[in-house]
């Protein structure tokens, strides 16, 4: 997330065409020491590199898990890695990180990896936050990424600005779409640039492993969650179980 090389992995399912990518492998909060966390400079560029690597392996369907990010760049770094040019007023490409978004004057998608046009992208997310505003990426998740109140305000304004540029240049209005604010706004760019479909990650998992069938005779399901707090209501696993399968009972440390 800070531009240093990290070892990241992704999976390929048995069909040899479906990649499972976890953005936190390349752009995760745990990759950044606490004293270096700064969403003004962290980037999702590495996530874009993982997507490109999967394309190189012949994958034309991708399930991308977005969560646990160290970033708040609206997915700008990801699309930069995939060939999109985010240009400033002088025609030069902007740098990396959420602090650069307000410098974007024009978006050039001419060099976006053309293999993406034949690739189906499914976003697995456990939150439904919009891109910006009171419940947006910066205000809800910025503090845990090292953002001060002043930085949160700057990032929120920058994401709103980036959304307007996307709307103007790509004719896609993603600012208020539920989930656009996931992973520091990565959800927004996946939808805007890669035509990705966003679904709750827990629902995708339930389908893949046929969980409802497996637990149809169970009296209790135990699911792990770091803590139960104000973020939990935005589509995380415990809420999915409580709303769709069992009455809500939670055991948690926090």
From TrEMBL:
Recorded GO MF terms: glycerate kinase activity
GO biological process, one term: organic acid phosphorylation
SUPFAM superfamilies: Glycerate kinase I
NCBIfam families: glycerate kinase
Identification of the protein by name: Glycerate kinase
Organism (species): marine sediment metagenome
